[in-house]
Amino acid sequence: MTLRIAVTDPTALRKRCEVTTLRTTYGEPAYEDGAVIPATSWAEITDETAHDLTATAARAQDTTLVELVKPPEPADALATLTDRLGDPDALHLGQATAPAAALTTTPNHETGGHRIGLHVDNWDRLPYAEKHQGRRRLCLNLGPGTRYLLLGDLDIRAICRAVHHDYADRYPHTNDLRRYVESGHLVLCYRFRLEPSEGYIAPTELIPHDGSTQGQPEPSTAAFWLGHWPRGVLPSLA
Predict the structure, then answer these.
(1) Looking at the DSSP assignment, which residues form a beta bridge with residue 220?
(2) Cβ pair 33, 201 in contact under 8 A
(3) Do 164 and 127 form a contact (C-beta atoms < 8 A)?
(4) How do the domains of the chain map onto residue ranges?
(5) How does DSSP classify residue 65?
(6) Which is it for the CA torsion 5, 3, 211, 173, positive or negative?
(7) 171-190, pLDDT tens digit by residue?
């Protein structure tokens, strides 16, 4: 398991985390063919799983960690907040609104808005050997609805190694994830509940991810930044 969650209370993590598997889509109107999405109903995680997700975080590089966070400032102070998080070059990526009851949230506007499913970002355009050193994404849920963070349990480098013999010369890509899942490999998907004013800092260049509002009656707007932040710059949710 390569997914690492930096929390101090695995019991609190259990209360906001569930797990399922992933599958690929074909002929589904909302999605690109080959998109990777949650496959079945969600199940509560066990104490053992919560421990596994958190046990190795202390020894991990900050650039590979997922943190569930809650800023102390209100939403209208976000610009000031990000100035104080330790990266003066952090990039504000903007905001995006997800409709209610969306299994995944990210569309591809170049293909008519079809959703792309779980994916990895490529803002930093890093090759295999450097992919784990990319900037992390800060996301804050501005509401009004609850949303989820979806994360695969394998990083894209492990997936790239499995599908390419020349992986060291590659730029790990969402297409590698799609090929890996389509070929029958098991990938677990965890979802983490985020109420309004809660958020995450995650290595979205490294870990397959997406948002979700599945089962939620209200839409959710999220604000996003990209930066090199050390662990612990915002209070933890768990």
Answers:
(1) 98, 144
(2) no
(3) no
(4) 10-227
(5) -
(6) positive
(7) 999 999 999 999 999 999 99
Place of tokens 């596994």: 52
Q: For the whole model, what pTM was predicted? A: 0.95
Rounded Cα distance, 60 and 4, in Å: 8
Taking the C-alpha atoms of residue 180 and residue 159, their distance in angstroms, rounded to an integer, is: 7
The half-sphere exposure of 14 on its side-chain side, counting CA atoms within 13 A, is: 12
Query: What DSSP string runs through 16-43?
Result: TEEEEEEEE-SS-TTEEEEEEEE-S--E
146: closest CA among 98, 92, 81?
A: 98
124-137 confidence digits (pLDDT tens) = 999 999 999 999 99
Joined together, the tokens standing for residue 166 give 């020349």
Kindly give, in sequence order, each residue whose CB lies less than 8 Å from that of residue 55, ignoring residues fewer than 6 positions away.
none
CA proximity to 199, closest of 137, 144, 155, 153: 137
The token pair that represents 202 in the structure block = 């995650």
The sign of the torsion formed by the CA atoms of 32, 159, 188, 155 equals negative
Sheet order of strands, 199-202 included:
67-69, 199-202, 136-144, 220-227, 91-98
Out of 2.40.128, 3.10.620, 1.10.3470, 2.60.120, which CATH number does the structure's domain 10-227 have? Answer: 2.60.120
> What pLDDT shows up at residue 75?
56
Q: Dmax of the chain from CA atoms?
A: 49
- Beta carbons of 155 and 64 less than 8 angstroms apart: yes
Amino acid 74: pLDDT: 64
